Amino acid sequence: MNIEIRENQFSPWEEIQRYEKEVLDPVHAGQYGAATVFSGTMREFNEGDGVSGMFLEHYSGMTDSYLEKISQEAAERWEVLDTLIIHRVGVMMPNDPIVLVAAWSAHRGVAFEAARFLIEELKSRAPFWKKEQLEEGERWVEHNTPA
Amino acid sequence: MNIEIRENQFSPWEEIQRYEKEVLDPVHAGQYGAATVFSGTMREFNEGDGVSGMFLEHYSGMTDSYLEKISQEAAERWEVLDTLIIHRVGVMMPNDPIVLVAAWSAHRGVAFEAARFLIEELKSRAPFWKKEQLEEGERWVEHNTPA
Amino acid sequence: MIEVRFFASLREEMGREGAQLEPSEASTIGEVWERVADGKKRPANLLMARNMDYSDADTPVVDGDEVAFFPPVTGG
Amino acid sequence: MIEVRFFASLREEMGREGAQLEPSEASTIGEVWERVADGKKRPANLLMARNMDYSDADTPVVDGDEVAFFPPVTGG
């Protein structure tokens, strides 16, 4: 069960591959039949406007603690073998990965449900805020789109 | 929209990374906000027994055609930008990746639902059969676990 | 000719990969089974395909068709 | 002291990162807001945290607490 907040660009797929090799497989190789991974990427448009850049603010300390809380809740609700959350903060560009959540389990139903839970809870509870760079200036994103 | 049947071991995460770079991004960079990837891995146990190896048989031609059909159906039901299915056949070992399904979309709900659809339909309709190597000999898997 | 194919556990039970029939020997998939199954009853969960599309025992077959019989699929 | 923090669009509206209060100045999060908001009405969708846990306006505050105010979260 790991969470990370990153200031630099990351590749979700390299992170997953490394995590499986270095953290998961030494303990759980042969036990997980299912991994569900969600990767959220910065789009170059939002609510009808072109977006050329983004600043992601967070509440250092509280954000970490809520990502851990959410991971803990997933582990209590489902038989997951492990979960991983990585979230980017700071200045980013279109097509940059923003967030990665992953859940490993013996079976696929659990992996899908836990991964979905992680991203929905992250979006509704973890203190991150997006500020978009538009052609006409900047704007704070006011709310996330519902699930 | 791509499907592949592979005789050799593959890394799901390297495949996704390459697919995004070579196929998706040239067309859709900045458009997809969401990717959901499911990876199915060979477990070293099934129905209470240890499994040391597996042979995966398929119906060449029909399998390809059903993977394409399923991908087509997902594209008709949801606003996916792209999907990818890779499935391993032949002899494999515990912890080997068996199957990868992925769906890219502007929004996360669609990506999750389409990826789930792809794996459920694949499991119920695509002509693959697993034969497990146990300590006491071989056995054909008789049915998939329900979703 | 009608090309008949068996897969997975059914292939092993039958002891062969398939068979060939003259078109005059069978007009439906169910009749194809009768001709090639050596008296074996059709399993309740048997799956059938004609030219690589799922079909059922009543599906007509014609010269040049490929008919396949197999157990429930277990991929993924 | 009670440490008060603002985030995101609220920080920009307030024109500052936060404030400090004497414990005697406020006994609940709602009262903290009154002291630091320069007369601004509490937005209906305002989120509040005490020591990094979501709380509400009635939550008591004591010396040494960190109280944060911020708009709806938009991560992920």
Topology:
The complex is a heterotetramer, with 2 copies of chain A (147 residues) and 2 copies of chain C (76 residues).
Chain A: E1 2-6, H1 12-28, E2 34-41, E3 45-46, E4 49-50, E5 53-58, H2 62-77, E6 80-88, E7 90-92, E8 97-105, H3 108-125, E9 128-134, E10 137-140
Parallel strand pairs in A: 1-6
Antiparallel strand pairs in A: 2-8, 3-4, 5-7, 5-9, 6-8, 9-10
Helix pairs in contact in A: 2-3
Chain C: E1 2-6, H1 8-14, E2 18-21, H2 29-36, E3 47-50, E4 53-55, E5 66-70
Parallel strand pairs in C: 1-5
Antiparallel strand pairs in C: 1-2, 3-4, 3-5
Summarize the structure.
The complex is a heterotetramer, with 2 copies of chain A (147 residues) and 2 copies of chain C (76 residues). Chain A has 3 helices and 10 strands; from the N terminus they run βαββββαβββαββ.
Structure notes:
The complex is a heterotetramer, with 2 copies of chain A (147 residues) and 2 copies of chain C (76 residues). In chain A, a hairpin with a 2-residue loop joins strand 9 (128-134) and strand 10. The longest helix of chain A is centred in the last third of the chain and has 18 residues, at 108-125. Chain A has a single domain (2-136), classed as Aldehyde Oxidoreductase, domain 3, CATH 3.90.1170. Chain A is elongated, with a radius of gyration of 16 Å. Chain A starts with a strand and ends in a 7-residue tail after the last strand. Chain A has helices at residues 12-28, 62-77, 108-125; strands spanning 2-6, 34-41, 45-46, 49-50, 53-58, 80-88, 90-92, 97-105, 128-134, 137-140. In chain A, helix 2 (62-77) packs antiparallel against helix 3 (108-125). Chain A is built from 3 helices and 10 strands. In chain C, strand 3 (47-50) and strand 4 (53-55) form a beta hairpin. The termini of chain C are far apart. The interface between A and B is large, with 38 and 38 residues.
